[in-house]
Amino acid sequence: MAILLDRDTRVAVQGMTGWAGTHHTTQMMEYGTNVVGGVRPGKGGRSHLNLPVFDNVAAIRAETGANASIVFVPPATAAAAMIEAIEAEMPLVVTVTERVPTLDMVRVKDALKGSKTRLVGANSQGVLAPGVCKLGVMATGSERAGSIGIVSRSASLTSEVVAQVTAAGLGQSTTVGVGGDAIHGMSMRDCVELFLADPDTKGVVLIGEIGGSQEQEVAELLQEVGTTKPVVALVVGTHAPRERRMGHAGALTFGFKGDAASKIAALEKAGVRVAPSAHLVGRTIAEAMARAN
């Protein structure tokens, strides 16, 4: 069992006819994802990749029963695409687009309030349930179905940790990239809550970094409910200079807020095992799982 995705996930691709949409839709279908069509205003009624194209999200929902969408739309119009999906009551929306203007994401967050939509991203590599569904742009090949849920702010580190978890013989239930921008949809806390409630996820890996307070929010959750499953974290950016963006919009510290040391301290206080280095995450979660069994 995975979180967010299953074998009944029917995917609509917003922006499917562009280069990125075409390329990644092809890869998702080759992985086995059930893509039911695309959305491109003004091109409704045509076909692309042997799939129907619709003018809007409401139409593809009505005609195909799509229950998830992925957004490959340029930054200037990405917010409009997300809001359209929210208004069409799309249950799950994953947005790959990065550098969506901040004020646009504020409007998206407002549209999410009280809606029926879970938004992953923007600036997300996506969601992957190994062997079940790939909804994103992540590399595949080292993933394996298993019992570890992974939630991450970093796409490149996700690939590394997935490989380590597979090498440790544990595999992954689901991998979720929440997005690297400062403002996005589902938080790390949201994902950890889902993993804790999922009976087939036996342990959780959290890949954090400097900037924001998401890791502290996870620590608060775990102090509230207890560490009912082993949780291991990696927090990168220990030696990053202050007030300088590292990689993307979300990885930025001001003063003494959002630094790696305070995140690590909060997680350890909540009972999380923090991996001392990126290359030791797989070993750390394997040890934590062995102690729990």
From TrEMBL:
The keyword Ligase applies. Pfam families: CoA_binding, Ligase_CoA. Keywords: Ligase, Nucleotide-binding, Tricarboxylic acid cycle. It is an enzyme of class 6 (ligase). PROSITE patterns: SUCCINYL_COA_LIG_2 (PS00399). InterPro entries: Cit_synth/succinyl-CoA_lig_AS, CoA-bd, CoA_lig_alpha, NAD(P)-bd_dom_sf, SUCC_ACL_C, Succinyl-CoA_synth-like. SMART domains: CoA_binding. One of its GO terms (molecular function) is succinate-CoA ligase (ADP-forming) activity. This is Succinate--CoA ligase subunit alpha. Residues 4-100 form the CoA-binding domain. Its EC number is 6.2.1.5. PANTHER family: SUCCINATE--COA LIGASE [ADP_GDP-FORMING] SUBUNIT ALPHA, MITOCHONDRIAL (PTHR11117:SF2), SUCCINYL-COA LIGASE SUBUNIT ALPHA (PTHR11117).
